[in-house]
C-alpha cells in the first residue's frame, strides 16, 4: 500500500487518469471521512451514529 498526498501532483494525475479511463471506483461507507468537518460545523458520523440520528434524508435499504 502506498500513501498518497492529496496536494501532490502525482496523486492528482492518478485520479485524473483513472477518471478519464473509467477506472475510478468510489468507495462509499468505508469510514474514510468519519470525524471530518461537514456542514454547519458538524462532523461526518460513523455507521452507528448515523443509524440513531434523525437525519431526514436517510435511506433505509
State the separation between the terminal residues, measured CA to CA: 32 Å
SSE arrangement, N to C: HH
Fraction of residues in β-strands: under 5%
Report the radius of gyration as a whole number of Å: 15 Å
Structural class: mainly alpha
Describe the structure.
The chain has helices spanning 9-20, 47-52. It is mostly helical and 61 residues long. The protein has a domain at 29-54. The mean pLDDT is 78.
Question: Tags for this entry?
Answer:
61 residues; mainly alpha; 2 helices
What can be said about this structure in brief?
The protein is 30% helix and 0% strand. The protein is mainly alpha-helical. The chain has a domain at 29-54.
Strand and helix map with partners:
Layout: H1 9-20, H2 47-52
Amino acid at each position: 500500500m502506498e500513501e498518497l498526498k492529496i496536494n501532490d501532483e502525482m496523486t492528482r494525475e492518478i485520479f485524473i487518469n483513472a477518471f478519464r479511463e473509467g477506472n475510478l471506483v468510489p468507495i462509499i461507507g468505508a469510514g474514510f471521512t468519519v470525524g471530518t468537518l461537514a456542514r454547519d460545523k458538524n462532523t461526518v458520523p460513523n455507521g452507528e451514529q448515523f443509524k440513531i440520528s434523525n437525519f431526514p434524508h436517510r435511506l433505509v435499504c
